[in-house]
Amino acid sequence: MKVTQEMICEHGPCAEGLDWFEANYPDEEGDYQEILDRTIASGVPEYGRWLIDKLGSSGETLELAHIEGHGFFAGSLTVSGSVDCESIVCAGSLTIRGSLTIRESLIVDCSLNVGESLNVGESMYVGNNLKVAASLAVGRSLKVGESLYVGDSMKVDESLTVGRSMTVGGFLATDPQWGLFVGTSVMIADWPIEGYLRASEKPVNMLSGHFIKTCS
Fold first, then answer.
1. What is the pLDDT of residues 33-66, one digit of tens each?
2. What value does the mean pLDDT of the chain take?
3. How far is CA 128 from the centre of its chain?
4. CA 145 to chain centre
5. Residues contacting 68, CB < 8 A, separation 6+
6. Angstrom distance (rounded) from CA 180 to CA 162
7. What is the mean pLDDT of residues 4-10?
8. Residues 52, 113, 106, 192: is their CA dihedral positive or negative?
9. pLDDT number for residue 216
10. Sheet-wide strand order for 180-182
11. Which of 61, 80, 87, 110 could bridge 104 with an S-S bond, Cβ 3.0-4.6 Å?
12. What is the DSSP string of the chain?
């Protein structure tokens, strides 16, 4: 996907960001993914994040063997093995066949599927569905726009918000000083069907949604 200066100007960029684009792309256009890569390499990742916020997904799919450092991706991404990096921002969906470790933040605008465990040092956002085959740990807050499934144990140190339903196969640990919200995108009458938490024990800080107890 090509990104032109005209497209960028339509979204009201800051003067510094527009100057950076003009200096790096004198022909007034560039490949979306290459621009994102260059913002990281140039030490201005905030420009790349702004571009993803404004343009969204390119609709393309990329396949990689691994990710290092900070990663911005214009479309959907599939990684064949495990990943251990600083941060990821993905404008499409993200599939990790192995485990995923993020030392800072993780943002996936569509869905995220992790074949093994997922560990995030800071905050995490998934726009649609999140599925983790094994355990999940988040050092700060977690927000999921649609449904959340965790095959094993789950730990979130701050707030937890899930738009629809949530299923946890193992032990669920949250800080009672922070709220746990389930079914925030569903009418109260529909919580038992579309806005429930299915787990072995009901958290004391669960402030919305319908609880379904599972066998220990």
1. 999 999 999 999 999 999 999 998 999 999 998 8
2. 95
3. 9
4. 10
5. 85
6. 8
7. 93
8. positive
9. 60
10. 70-73, 87-90, 106-108, 124-126, 142-144, 160-162, 180-182, 206-208
11. 87
12. -EEEHHHHHTT---HHHHHHHHHH-TTSEEEHHHHHHHHHHTT-HHHHHHHHHHH---S-EEEES---SEEEESSEEEESS-EEESEEEESS-EEESS-EEESS-EEESS-EEESS-EEESS-EEESS-EEESS-EEESS-EEESS-EEESS-EEESS-EEESS-EEESS-EEE-TTS-EEE-TTS-GGGHHHHSEEEESS--TTEEESEEEE---
Classify residue 96 by burial, with Cβ atoms within 10 Å: 0-12, 13-18, 19+.
Answer: buried
CA separation for the pair 42, 69 (Å, rounded)? 13
Give the other-Cβ count within 10 Å of 4's Cβ. Answer: 14
Place of tokens 């701050």: 158
Distances (CA, A) of 11 to 110, 163, 183: 22, 29, 33
Query: Across the strands, what pairs with 168?
Result: 150
Distance CA 158, CA 169 (A): 20
Q: What is the pTM of this model?
A: 0.91
pLDDT tens figures, 114-135 = 999 999 999 999 999 999 999 9
Residue with tokens 């479309």: 75
Please state, in angstroms and rounded to a whole number, the distance separating the CA atoms of residues 88 and 74: 11
Residues 6+ apart with CB under 8 A from 139: 120, 121, 122, 123, 157
Q: What's the pLDDT band for 4 if we cut at 50, 70, 90?
A: very high
